[in-house]
Amino acid sequence: MHWLVALMTFAIVGLIAVGFYLEFRPALAPRLRTLFKPALAVQMTVFVGAMFGLLALGIGDAMAADPVTGAAVEVSVGLGLAIIGVGIPTALSTIGAGIAVGPIGSAALAAITEKPEMLGRSLIYIGLAEGIAIYGLVVSILLLNRI
């Protein structure tokens, strides 16, 4: 199992090293620059390659690990899917709240710049947009209690 940790460490260090290499020495990597124009594409290629390596080499060790003795709860496929389903309302509502707060916050900032007395009203609008995320969290908690 130590080799799996070493491979994950290599993936992260390789990602950082390629980023620094392409950032500070772009003239030394003309072939990489012609294949992948932005440095992010090279970094993601190294990272995805390392993760596929982890998947190919590490799945056997993960599946062959001895179960831990004690009061461990066995997680079935159905329970795993239920837990993923519990997280979906929080994830989607948080994304929706982020999409809502962006334009409302910028419009509120512009309104406060022109009329400072609009601060209270604009804070209420931003709070209503952020409430979407709280509603998703409440739904997830209610669903988690049903499992």
Give the CATH topology of the largest domain.
F1FO ATP Synthase
General form: flat
Which segments are poorly predicted (pLDDT under 50) over 5 or more consecutive residues? Answer: none
The CATH homologous superfamily of the largest domain is termed: F1F0 ATP synthase subunit C
Number of discrete domains: 2
Query: What's the level 1 CATH class of the largest domain?
Result: Mainly Alpha
| Share of residues in helices | over 70%
Number of helices: 5
Strand count, sense and closure of the main sheet?
none
- Measured by DSSP, the beta-strand proportion falls in under 5%
Give structural notes:
This protein folds into two domains: 2-63, no CATH class; 77-146, F1F0 ATP synthase subunit C (F1FO ATP Synthase, Up-down Bundle), CATH 1.20.20. The chain is 82% helix and 0% strand. It contains five helices and no strands. The two termini are 33 Å apart.
